[in-house]
Design goal:
Length: about 160
């Protein structure tokens, strides 16, 4: 296995592998020595640097680095807000069980105390009937597993 493949695998694991390195047309990325078109964080940083240091237009720079103008503006805002760490990839989609609020979890715990054998599917039906909220049974199972895991962890 080559060094390059190892780096590409690591970038993929970190979700910072550029899915379209062939779109990067900046000449300094073509030599393959220091600059790596597969490294999305490096590509974004160089795209932003090209505008601020070399005076290129934002649209021109985005096109040169194989990214869209919205991607340029998102990267620019992230860099301004968080520094270099802002260019690192973020988890997409919901960050947790957003429907299972404290109120809903309290309802679930009450129902489990009343009927310890109640299943997630029955809980989902009751939540829909009484609280007018549609929650998937698997979401309830995961929330209960997280809660159980937190109770079994040793204190720090």
């Amino acid at each position: 296995m080559t060094q390059r493949n190892t780096k590409a695998e690591r970038l993929k694991a970190l979700k910072s592998l550029n899915r379209h390195p062939e779109r990067v047309r900046a000449p300094w990325f073509q030599t393959g020595t220091f600059f790596d078109a597969q490294d999305l964080v490096q590509v974004k940083y160089e795209m932003l640097r090209h505008v601020s240091q070399d005076g290129a237009s934002k649209a021109e720079s985005a096109a040169l680095f194989g990214l869209s103008r919205p991607a340029f503006y998102q990267a620019e805002a992230a860099l301004d807000r968080e520094g270099l760490a802002g260019l690192l990839p973020r988890q997409r989609g919901p960050k947790g069980a957003h429907k299972l609020t404290a109120q809903i979890m309290s309802f679930i715990e009450r129902r489990q105390a009343e009927d310890p054998g109640i299943h997630a599917r029955a809980l989902a039906r009751e939540i829909k009937a009484q609280l007018k909220l549609s929650v998937h049974p698997r979401s309830i199972e995961r929330a209960l597993a997280r809660k159980k895991k937190l109770r079994t962890l040793p204190p720090r």
